[in-house]
Amino acid sequence: MSEVYLNGKFIGEVEEPIVFVENFKSERRKGKIESNANIRYDDKLKIVEIEAGKGRATRPLIVVKDGMPLLTDKILEQLKKGELTWSDLINQGIIEYLDSAEEENAYVSFSEKDLKTDNTHLEISPYTMFGICTSLVPFCQHSPTPRVNMGSKNQKQGLGFYAANYLVRMDMDTSLLHYPQTPVVKTWMHEVYEDDKHPAGQNIVVAIMSYEGYNMEDAIILNKGSIERGFGRSSYYRPSIAEELRYSGGLIDEICIPDKEVKGYKSEKDYRLLEEDGIVYPEAAVNEEDVIIGKTSPPRFLSSFDEYNLAAAARRESSVAIEHGEKGVIDIVLITENEEGNKLVQVRIRDEKIPEIGDKFTSRHGQKGVVGLIVPQADMPFSASGMTPDLIFSPHGIPSRMTISHLIELIGAKVGSLNGRYIDGTTFHSEQEDHLRKELLTMGFRESGVETMYNGQTGEQYTARIYIGNMYYLKLKQMVSNKLHARARGPIQLLTRQPTEGRGKEGGLRLGEMEKDTFVAHGASLLLKERFDSDKTVIPVCEKCGLIAIYDTHKEKAYCPICGDSDISDIEISYAFKLILDEFKSLCVYPSLKLKNKY
C-alpha cells in the first residue's frame, strides 16, 4: 500500500502505485484531468505525490511512445496551415507540462535522433531551458553556466531603444542609445522577440590585446574617433513632478514664482529660468540647485488662533529644484491635473551622456568592463588593411572565465560583416566554428582570426599577431556621471548633527571600521582625528555629579541643574554620544561622566 498526497495533504492509499500513476497520466492526456496536475511516485518513501497548485513552474515536453514522438510530420503540417493550435496539442495529449517532481520519473531525450525505446519525453527544442535574455546570448553552449547567467543579467541593463513612444513617457531614470543596431551574430530568439524593433547595442571592431596597461583588471580602452562618430552616446531622462495639494481649512499650494516675503526664499538667480506661470521653459539649460517649478505652500502648523492674527503667517517656499550633481536641458513641460482635479506639473530633463572614463560596457558573454582610457584614433593600433579597433579588450579576461563564446562571436561577426549576412549563433543549433573559419579563409583572412597589427604611436609591427574581429557591445546604465560624488562641508541631520546620507542630499562619505584600519596600517592615523569629528560638539559638564550642565547665554555663565554653582568644564565629545546620554536619561538611567585632567 502507498499513501497518496494532494498538494501535501494525505487523501488516501492505493495498492498498485505505479499502475495508479500511469492511469492518472493517461487520463490527463485525454483531457479528463486538468493539465496543470502533476504526479510523481517516490519509490524510496513509497508515496504518490500529486501537485495541482496554481503558480507552479512547469515546462512543455513532447510525449514519446515506444521510442516515437507523438508529434508527427503530419501534425506539424496542420500546425503550419493553422488547422491545429497549441491548445489542441495539449488537449490531445501530444504535449504535456511537467513540473520538477514529475520530471524525476521522466526520461527526456535532447533530440529526435537520440531517441531510445525507454524515453518518455522529447525536448521541443533544447534551448527552451533558457529564458528570453539567456536565449539572446550567442554560442552559449561554449561558455560556463555562471558566465551565461551574467551575460543574461548584463543585457537587462543595456541601453537601447526601450520604447517607441519614449517622447511622451515620463519614466524615471531612463536612457536611450542614440544609434542602436541589431547584432550581426543573432540567435533564434532575436527573430522571435523582434529585436530589430528595439535593439540595445552596437556592432564594433574589438581587438584582444594589452595596451599600455590601461586595460588591466577587466578595464577596456576606447577609440576616441569611434566616440566622435557616435559610439555609445545616449540621452538620460529624468522627470520632476510638482502638484498643488489641498490642505484642511481650504488652504492650497500655489505653483508660481515665489514672492520675496515667502519663508525660505532662495535668490533671484535660482528663479531666473521660471516664466510667468512659475514653470521653466523648454530647452532651458539647467544646472544643480536651479529651480524648475516654483511653488509656495501654506504655513505648516496653522492653528485656529492664527487665522484671526493680523500679521498673517507667511507662506513657505517648496519649489522643485534640480538635484545635487545633476544637469541637463529641459526636454518637455507637461501641465495636467491629478485624480483630485488639482494642477499637476511634470518637467522632464534630458542630458547627453558621451562615453567617458569610468563608464561600463559589456559583451553578451558576461565580460563586463569599465573604460580605463580613451585613446585618439591616431594612436590606436592598426591592422595591415588600416583597420583600427573601436575597443581594446584585455586578453587576461579569457583564460579564467573560459568564455569561448566571446571568442567565437569575434570570428562569427567578422565573417558576417565581411560577407554581408547575419550569423546564426543559436545555442545547440549554431553555425559550426570550423565552417566560419573556412569562410574567413576564403575572404583572404587568417582562419584563426588573428592579424598583423602595428603600433599606432611608433608604426612598428607587433611581434605577436592580434586576435581581432567584430562584436556586439552594450553600454550599461551604470554611468560614472550618475555616480560621481564628493563633499567637503554640507548639510547635516537635525537629530544626530551628522552629515546627511546619499548623493542626492549632498551627503557625506562614510568612513567605517575597516577604512579606519587601512589608514592606521598606512601610517596616516592622525587623519582619523579629522575624519571622525563630523559631529564634534563642545558641552559643559558638572565635575561633581557628571551630568551635562546648562549654559545661560544671558548671564554668560554655565550652571548644573542639580548641584547649582559647581565646577563646570567644557569637554569635546561627538554629538551622537551626547544624544545617547539624553536617551539614557529618558530610560531613568544616570549617565555620569567622570572627568579626568588631560595632563
Task: Characterise this structure.
This protein is of the alpha+beta class and 599 residues long. The chain folds into four domains: 2-124, no CATH class; 140-233 and 357-475, Dna-directed Rna Polymerase Ii 140kd Polypeptide, Chain: B, Domain 6; 236-353, Beta Barrel (OB fold (Dihydrolipoamide Acetyltransferase, E2P)), CATH 2.40.50; 536-586, Alpha-Beta Complex (DCoH-like), CATH 3.90.1800.10. It is built from twelve helices and 34 strands. It has a six-stranded mixed beta barrel with strand order 12-26-13-24-23-30. Helix 8 (404-419) runs parallel beside helix 9. The longest helix has 16 residues, at 404-419. The model has no long low-confidence stretch (mean pLDDT 91).
Give structural attributes:
single chain; 599 residues; alpha+beta; OB fold (Dihydrolipoamide Acetyltransferase, E2P); 6-stranded mixed barrel; 5-stranded mixed sheet
Amino- and carboxy-terminal Cα gap: 88 Å
* Number of E-state strands: 34
Per CATH, the architecture of the largest domain is: Beta Barrel
Q: Give the tally of structural domains.
A: 4
- How would you sum up the global shape? extended
Spatial order of the strands forming the largest sheet: 12-26-13-24-23-30
Low-confidence segments? none
What is the name of the CATH topology of the largest domain? Dna-directed Rna Polymerase Ii 140kd Polypeptide, Chain: B, Domain 6
Radius of gyration: 35 Å
- Overall structural class, as computed from helix and strand content, comes to alpha+beta
CATH class of the largest domain: Mainly Beta
SS strand fraction: 25-35%
Number of helices: 12
Would you identify the CATH H-level superfamily of the largest domain?
Answer: DNA-directed RNA polymerase, subunit 2, domain 6
Mean pLDDT: 91
